[in-house]
């Protein structure tokens, strides 16, 4: 029973450059899963262009992002958990952290735009962690790049090894349907009207006599030639290679028109991994272990400013998580019980009695958790791989209302635990510096400090190019002592009291690295 539940789970994230169709694809997957009844039910969580200073927009986005953090549904007896990843680049760190909780990903690419910047960054993280990936090339109803050129681009720019499992018949105005290499059948649009491509007719295979009539001899010959080329150029699909992150199957379709999505979903439930083992600092944790272990990958502040409680999202790695059972909060070494753990479904959240590996539970929290914390049945386990990244925007943060110093400190503390930004304290004068991955976070912090904590802050510019964590090869090393003395002005501590070097330019970073070869400079907080 326990093992069956684990084998049923498919927990994954969809990543893409903004506008490639992530929201549309998510919605279509939910429609096929019967989790929603109509299109338009999943709101886009993207911040609209030009709205960067519109606080209502930020709040609206926060509200939606809590609602769409996890979208669960059942399909063909599998429990699918889609973890939402923000597309906006200023929230890239949220996406990186969410990727620590997925067992596989689907990468959406726009057929006309090809591989874009944000896709490159996100895929790189997945590739480094050997996360199994499926590529979905979207918007085939529009004119775009040739299928083979696109697959070349995916291989070159993303460093992947692909093999198509579906292939488009035509493109743009001539897009007629999909040949399913995986199931060896053909789906054609039923309706000539390009606006209504909801339903499809299926042909058993390419020799089906009716098919030639339907798409014409020319299109059929082209398809046959293309499939011959596919067979010659790309390796046959091999599930083991896919699971090892060595081979990425490619699907083509149009999420907006429901085309190619069911093919993707049917194959996904067959091949995508059930919950995987996860490496903790102490040992590897197997999902089938009886004892519970999980970690916090996301914290969301409650939308109601009158209640300062938060929702901590926990990925269950092993064992079962049960309501009202005491679990060990490893960092605080204290037992906690949760009376109302939330499970998330497409249009609702509900209190859940028991959750299994692969599932995500949302726990109400009054400030106990921070990102990366682990919760277990009793064992001291710390999960690796939830690093902070070198921020790229820096400002001094000052208290703008001396009567509210306590509120300000508490607010900053909690927002940092949520992972909104990073706080550094300068060694020289104890001034506080906020470092963020995107410029938008400064507005978010100021707004939320005021509305949720009743505190006011102001910012002051600070010329820092990059923050990097520094470490001595050997603590007694004289070179390290000299580095600390000479560079004192540029040194700070992060919230974990780790030493950080704030380089004011790329040049000075490079010079410092050259001058102190025995000092190690790290670009993420985990090393
Ligand atoms: P994102 O979450 O990756 O940012 O993308 P999203 O799904 O919001 O899609 C971005 C735009 O692309 C939307 O249009 C959406 O309708 C369109 N789109 C998605 N899939 C397809 C497809 O298969 N074919 C075509 N032609 N368009 C597609 P929009 O005009 O920006 O928004 P909306 O007003 O339609 O919501």
Your description of this structure?
The strands form 7 sheets. Strands 27-24-26-25-29-30-28-31 form an 8-stranded antiparallel sheet. Strands 2-3-1-4-5-11-6 form a 7-stranded mixed sheet, with helices on both faces. The chain has 14 helices and 31 strands. The chain is globular, with a radius of gyration of 25 Å. The protein folds into 3 domains: 2-173 and 236-271, Rossmann fold (3-Layer(aba) Sandwich); 278-376, P-loop containing nucleotide triphosphate hydrolases (Rossmann fold, 3-Layer(aba) Sandwich); 393-522, Alpha-Beta Plaits. The model is unreliable at 47-53 (pLDDT under 50). The longest helix has 17 residues, at 217-233. The site of guanosine-5',3'-tetraphosphate (G4P) has 19 residues, from helix 2.
How many domains make up the 3D coordinates? 3
Number of strand elements: 31
In CATH terms, what is the fold-level topology of the largest domain? Answer: Rossmann fold
| Relative strand content | 25-35%
For the biggest sheet, the summary is: 8 strands, antiparallel
Text of the CATH class of the largest domain: Alpha Beta
The percentage helix is 25-40%
């Amino acid at each position: 029973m326990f093992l069956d539940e684990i084998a049923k789970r498919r927990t994954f994230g969809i990543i893409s450059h903004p506008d490639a169709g992530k929201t549309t694809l998510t919605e279509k997957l939910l429609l096929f899963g019967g989790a929603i009844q109509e299109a338009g039910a999943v709101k886009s969580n993207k911040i609209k262009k030009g709205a960067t200073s519109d606080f209502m927009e930020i709040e609206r986005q926060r509200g939606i992002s809590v609602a769409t953090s996890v979208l669960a549904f059942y399909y063909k007896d599998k429990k699918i958990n889609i973890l939402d990843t923000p597309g906006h680049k200023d929230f890239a760190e949220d996406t990186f952290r969410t990727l620590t909780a997925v067992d596989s990903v689907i990468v959406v690419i726009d057929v006309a735009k090809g591989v874009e910047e944000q896709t490159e960054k996100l895929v790189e993280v997945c590739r480094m962690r050997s996360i199994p990936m499926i590529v979905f090339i979207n918007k085939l109803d529009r004119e775009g790049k040739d299928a083979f050129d696109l697959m070349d681009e995916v291989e070159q720019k993303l460093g992947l090894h692909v093999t198509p499992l579906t292939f488009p018949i035509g493109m743009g105005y001539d897009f007629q349907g999909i040949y399913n290499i995986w199931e060896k059948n053909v789906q054609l649009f039923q309706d000539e009207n390009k606006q209504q491509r909801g339903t499809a007719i299926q042909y058993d295979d390419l020799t089906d006599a009716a098919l030639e009539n339907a798409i014409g001899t020319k299109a059929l010959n082209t398809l046959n030639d293309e499939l011959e080329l596919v067979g010659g150029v790309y390796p046959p699909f091999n599930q083991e290679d896919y699971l090892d992150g060595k081979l990425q199957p490619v699907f083509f379709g149009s999420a907006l028109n429901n085309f190619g999505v069911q093919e993707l979903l049917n194959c996904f439930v067959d091949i995508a991994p059930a919950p995987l083992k996860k490496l903790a600092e102490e040992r590897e944790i197997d999902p089938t272990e009886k004892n519970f272990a999980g970690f916090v990958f996301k914290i969301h502040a409650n939308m109601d400013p009158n209640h300062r409680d938060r929702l901590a999202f926990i990925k269950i790695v092993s064992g079962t998580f049960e309501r009202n059972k005491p679990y060990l909060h490893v960092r605080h070494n204290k037992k906690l019980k949760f009376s109302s753990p939330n499970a998330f479904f497409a249009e609702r959240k509900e209190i859940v009695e028991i959750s299994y590996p692969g599932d995500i539970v949302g726990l109400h929290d009054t400030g106990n958790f921070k990102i990366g914390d682990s919760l277990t049945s009793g064992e001291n386990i710390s999960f690796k791989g939830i690093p902070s990244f070198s921020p790229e925007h820096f400002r001094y943060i000052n208290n703008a209302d001396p009567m509210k110093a306590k509120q300000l400190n508490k607010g900053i503390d909690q927002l940092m635990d949520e992972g909104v930004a990073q706080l550094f304290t300068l060694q020289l004068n104890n001034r506080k510096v906020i470092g963020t991955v995107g410029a938008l976070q400064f507005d978010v912090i100021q707004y939320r400090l005021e509305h949720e904590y009743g505190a006011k802050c102001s910012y002051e510019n600070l010329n820092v190019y990059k923050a990097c964590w520094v470490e001595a090869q050997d603590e007694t090393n004289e070179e390290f002592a000299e580095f600390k003395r000479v560079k004192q002005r540029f040194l700070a501590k992060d919230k974990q009291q780790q030493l950080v070097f704030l380089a004011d330019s790329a040049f000075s970073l490079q010079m410092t690295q050259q001058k102190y070869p025995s000092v190690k400079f790290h670009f993420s907080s985990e090393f």
